[in-house]
């Protein structure tokens, strides 16, 4: 087992809700090792977004402990250990692709390196679109801009919450393949939330299956498919069996 980058212990999150409260997560435990690609799957409302937001210090836990690179999530966020990619790419409409990607660097007051931006654009296969505006891009292209932007300050951990949730099936398959190429060439640790089991199996080294609310980690499935993954593999019986195995875990939830 490699070096542990993210460790979550006995994590709980309770949201106030009117007079009562909602227990979103309870006793969540998981470890993610360096350069691992893990996915979190589970029924809608089980707390996937809550979990990834807790790891990335966008909200605070009610109980339990998280360590990222041996630090608190708050320290890790301040050290720019996290890149965030959400379902909505949130691009500035008046900024070009390049300008959107370089935004975090401006915010952090770092010098603009145009070569680096060019490299990032090439990495996400958007060369030729440097000066395009978001409205000129397809949904898939917008999400690639969001990925390049998240990578611009070289975070060690990429947190992705259903980044391709609004994208049609075929485009999504291609984006999945491109994401793996990006991961293979940049070597980051990726935590990827999805409700698509086939997507999770295609991408991941390991899949955490959550129970319905209050969310807990029900199982931790190692994806024994060789790398690099290819779209062809999606037709194999091994792939189908893994998808079915995870579906079965989710069914037992009910
Ligand atoms: N800010 C919030 N205030 C109150 N309840 C919330 C808040 N965020 C999430 N919840 C509740 O916590 C549960 C888990 O939500 P979420 O993490 O978004 O689930 P998922 O991403 O798996 O669909 C849901 O019941 C949701 O309504
Ligand atoms: Mg969610």
Ligands present: adenosine-5'-diphosphate, magnesium ion
Spell out the helices and strands N to C: EEEHEHEHHHHEHEHEEH
CATH topology of the domain at 4-81 and 155-251: Rossmann fold
For the record, what is the CATH homologous superfamily label of the domain at 4-81 and 155-251? P-loop containing nucleotide triphosphate hydrolases
Rounded to the nearest angstrom, the distance between the terminal CA atoms is 33 Å
CATH class of the domain at 4-81 and 155-251 equals Alpha Beta
Global shape: globular
The number of helical runs is: 9
Strand order of the largest sheet: 5-6-7-3-8-9
The residue-averaged pLDDT reads 94
**Sheet with most strands:** 6 strands, mixed
Low-confidence stretches: none
Oligomer: single chain
Q: Write the CATH architecture name of the domain at 4-81 and 155-251.
A: 3-Layer(aba) Sandwich
Structural class by helix and strand composition: alpha/beta
Total E-strand runs: 9
Radius of gyration: 18 Å
Percent in strands: 25-35%
Helix content: 25-40%
Can you offer a commentary on this structure?
The chain is α/β, with parallel strands linked by helices. It has a domain of 175 residues: Rossmann fold, CATH 3.40.50.300. The chain is built from 9 helices and 9 strands. The protein is globular. Bound molecules: adenosine-5'-diphosphate (ADP) and magnesium ion. The site of magnesium ion has 2 residues, from α1. The site of adenosine-5'-diphosphate has 13 residues, from β1, β2 and α1.
